[in-house]
Amino acid sequence: MTIADTDTARTHWTGTADAAERAQWDAVAEGVADQLAVDALARDRANAQPFAEKRLLQESGLTTLLDPAELGGGGAHWESAYRAVRIIARRDASIAQLLGYHYINSANIALIAPPAERERWFRASIAERWLWGDSVNPVDPNLTLTEDGEGFRLDGFKRFSTGSGVGEALLVNAVVKGGDRDGEFAYLVLPFGHPGVELVDDWDHLGQRLSASNTVRYHDVRVKPAHVLGFGTDEPLQSFVTPGIQLVFANLYLGIAEGALEQARALTVARPNAWFLSGVPTYADDPFVRRLYGELVSRVAAVEALADVVGREFDAAIGRGADVTAEDRADLAYRIAQLKVVSSDTAVDVANRVYEATGASSTASKVGLDLHWRNVRTHSLHDPVDYKKLEVGARFLTGVVQPISLYT
């Protein structure tokens, strides 16, 4: 089958992942996670642009996991991609974010590009193993895109541009000002090092320090027709980018929670003796410690179960392609919002409360248990989880569907 054969379906994704596919890509992700775990804390503290980590993702095949098999991609499903993000987040949430955003950004080939142009984009991205960064922060409407001959001129800036510091392809969103396409929402793809694009190495935050989420400034940037991926429409399929990225977030938070529990368990089991009032020989025998882990492990298991189900639901919905409806999209967004609520709240709580079991010694800088909390505390502020709770509550009570945006 060729890309042209999928034109009426609008995407090449069909069906859902089977056990063999999940096992294959889980193993790949676990191998990458093991390599990242060796020096995750040291790299976090160095706060350098993650070029080496990006190459690790590319060489593993994870960056082409979702791309069409007939063009050299992995031919896998979204569930496998989300599981990969989750697995890597257990060890290095920054690089998991880099990968998850790449999946969503590169998916715009299928969601946005005209059918006749998709194969060109896929072939370039697969052959050159592009990692896709983005410069689309909707709370920074500070870009000016004006018609200029056959192309455009781009000026302004965007903060929080994940992957921009290391990605071969930079996805940019801007509204056209003037000309025949005045007011249209444009999707642009600029190569790394494009003239006039200034990458500002200013990402120095509490967590997610290696996500390359810099500020990008655009100085009279020439945008040729070949750089235009497409333009926004009212087609429901195009808007899957928002529930898609929110599902990345949920799996990112879940992976962080799982990583925090795993490290905390090792620290707890290794603690000598026990609290003098406990009457038991070790901290692992302490009933209060066991109760704490019983609660946290159970909550994380529940989030994992929901994440697995919703990941398959995403595949089923996006697999409908051009036949997907606005109601399908609303139902999916509602389910993902539920997952976003429980994954965010659970991960922040887990990364905080594991200290109650690991004790004061685990706050030593060399231990690095704080990395999980710093990462989830930073990224969970991406968009307020309270508004996701309102979204779920409104839909449950009155059937209200939130207007489509880059956050809903």
Automatic annotation (TrEMBL):
InterPro entries in the cross-refs: Acyl-CoA_DH_C, Acyl-CoA_Oxase/DH_mid-dom_sf, AcylCo_DH-like_C, AcylCoA_DH/ox_N, AcylCoA_DH/ox_N_sf, AcylCoA_DH/oxidase_NM_dom_sf
Pfam families per record: Acyl-CoA_dh_2, Acyl-CoA_dh_N
Keyword Oxidoreductase applies: yes
Annotated SUPFAM superfamilies: Acyl-CoA dehydrogenase C-terminal domain-like (SSF47203), Acyl-CoA dehydrogenase NM domain-like (SSF56645)
Domain (Acyl-CoA dehydrogenase/oxidase N-terminal): residue spans on this chain: 21-124
Sequence ranges assigned to domain Acyl-CoA dehydrogenase C-terminal in this UniProt record: 247-383
Entry keyword set: Oxidoreductase
PANTHER family registered for this protein in UniProt: ACYL-COA DEHYDROGENASE, ISOVALERYL-COA DEHYDROGENASE, MITOCHONDRIAL-RELATED
Protein name: Acyl-CoA dehydrogenase family protein
Organism: Microbacterium aurantiacum
